[in-house]
Amino acid sequence: MLKKCYCVLTNASYLPDFDGDVIGVDKGAWICFKNGIEMKAAIGDFDSISSSEKQLLQNSIKNMTILNPRKDVSDSEAALQWAEKQGYDEIVLVTSMSGRFDHTYVNFQLVHHYDCVLMDKYNKVFLVHEGTCEIEKGNYKYISFFAREESVVTLEGFSYPLSQYRMTADDVLGLSNEIINKKGLVTTTGKLWCIQSNDAN
Fold this sequence. Notes:
By secondary structure, the protein is an alpha/beta fold. The protein has two domains: 4-121, Rossmann fold, CATH 3.40.50; 127-197, Jelly Rolls (Sandwich). 21% of the residues lie in helices and 33% in strands. It contains four helices and 13 strands. The strands form two sheets. Strands 4-3-2-1-5-6-7-13-9 form a nine-stranded mixed β-sheet. The protein has a four-stranded antiparallel β-sheet with strand order 8-12-10-11, with no helix packed on it. A hairpin with a 5-residue loop joins strand 10 (151-156) and strand 11.
């Protein structure tokens, strides 16, 4: 059985229905605490919350790692490294993709380096690897594919199918597709970014 965890980041704008362990990351731990979400662990330098809030977390969370603010990795990456050591098979970063774009860009890179999932209220981002896989439509209206590396791509069960299309890293043809039924079939010779999304309300 797959072992799954959610890392709730500092700028998380919503909390999904958790079906795995929860790790609070910096202010994300405070967001979880305020919403009564039980956490497996908390990690970060906690410089984005007050000293009294930090003390409440320390009193409430058994497994809490406080990092030095002067460090070579972000709190998010530190949480990913911790989660990998615990043997989680699937790691989801819960965040907001609005606001500071530099943070969003770094989180995209973390998706690539750690093969995790990035999600907020309207979007879900992950990598599709070489081979053939099914992608569930779920509650998302739109789906887009962009090449992380040059790939030959076939899409079946989509509003805009592709057959052996050579997609380059600067190609934008894969924007705003839709899965026709419940699942779509993707075949690729290289890594693709997959972004499932809905319009903001």
